[in-house]
Design brief:
Elements (H helix, E strand, L loop, with lengths): L2 E6 L4 H5 L6 E5 L2 E2 L3 H7 L4 E8 L2 E8 L8 E3 L38 H7 L10 H10 L4 E4 L5 H8 L7 H10 L4 E7 L7 H11 L5 E8 L15 H21 L5 E3 L1 H7 L21 H15 L15 H12 L15 E7 L3 H15 L2 E7 L16 H9 L2 H6 L2 E5 L16 H8 L3 E4 L2 H9 L5 E2 L17 H4 L2
Helix pairs in contact: 8-9, 13-15
Length: about 500
Amino acid sequence: MSGLIKSTEPDSAAAHAGLLPGDAVLAINGHALRDVIDAQFYGADDDLAFDILRDGQPLRLRAERASGQALGIAFEHPTFDIDIRRCNNLCPFCFVLQNAPRMRRTLYIKDDDYRYSFLFGHFVTLTNLSDEDWARLAEQRLSPLYVSVHATDLETRRKCLRNANAPDVMAQLHWLADHGIEAHTQLVITPGLNDGAQLEKSVRDLATLWPNVLSISVVPVGLTKHHKYGHRPHTPAEATATIDQIEAWQTEFRATLGVNFAYCTDEWYLVAGRSVPPKRAYDGLDLQANGLGMVRDFLDEWRRVKRAELKIVPIPLPVKPSASRDREKNAKLKSSTLPSQFSILNSQFSAATLATGTLFAPTLAKAAKEFTRDTGMQLRVVPIVNERLGATITIAGLLSGDDVIRQLQQDDATMRESALVILPRIMFDHPDGIALDDVSPLDIARAINKPVALADWMGDVVDAFRGTNRLLFAPQADSLDVPIVREGGWAVEKYL
């Protein structure tokens, strides 16, 4: 097998050896390569010999690698082919099994590849590994891995996976720990399947493996209208009870382990109507891609934008405690702000509409209300109901372009008053810049005849008003000419 080079970094070991885009790397220091992981592992030596094919001819190139110098090879495909490891489970909450018809073709591929877990942080079940895979994990110490546990009780886990032959995940995690491999874990909780006593058992079992098991992300099940197995989403009361239980365990783990260890993803708090935890509650973990701490990052970024970009600063007035009326008056004054500098800056748009999923819409609406109050620029929020997958799918990243177009066209205020529509960038986090139904932001701009900007943060919204957001698409544009996808986003789909 060989890896086709896409590019090399300047001043890297690969560049000094003379490797070029289009070269196919066969081996490094005599070790045949299966994928980019092998290239990283065998390319860590100081003296490097690259066996390559250039224009079909074999060639050996050499380089000495300086301390700290990058290997510097970007391959066309991280596994050198498109042989993504397929999942051998039939989880009732699997998105592929609940998908709507006529979506992107890659959304129907059930991937469960430990290599993508190591490279991109994808959660995998460890149910399809061969003896060779386990030997490679031990040799190369691919750490950390991201493991979908769902339940530590073997029979319950087999029900969660709908796989009667699924191995004991606790034995697998013990094996990883014995070989110095760390793991982040997740439990996707389905009412009546792996909640309650099973959730407590799973959390406590996994805690016995800390610090080799670094974390537990507790995730609420997501079910589309195409779900066929009789399960249901969590109620707000159940979300509240789950948060309370996890936070009680966090208090215990903080005392015994020094970290919270188990973490509720953001959806629980939004469904329950509870405030998300402060940044410190996540113990410095980078698990936002799994829905952990994204809302907190949004709120903290908006606070910084108000101060740094909009120059909105609270007026530091003391509260006089002498009388009830004085306390109320001064409290109102204290919460007011200095006038924003934004309204006097050159703005291309006077009013805009933010469209997002129904789950995040209330949080976004609060920020939009503050933006309008403090800048004088009209910013309103339209929650988009996911009709393609069903109203129970509430996150922005799973919205379809057709749903956005249809519901914005039916929204009179958007069509009449807004000069600009701002959509979540995550909707289009794909190499081709398309939503789940192959619709691009340019398609949406043309359909509603308004400019469309993409945003992750409120800072992107500010840039959109100013006309400096680089992901701004006019209806008359010929094509998408800037990349929308971010590194790591929809990683499997990039290579299929």
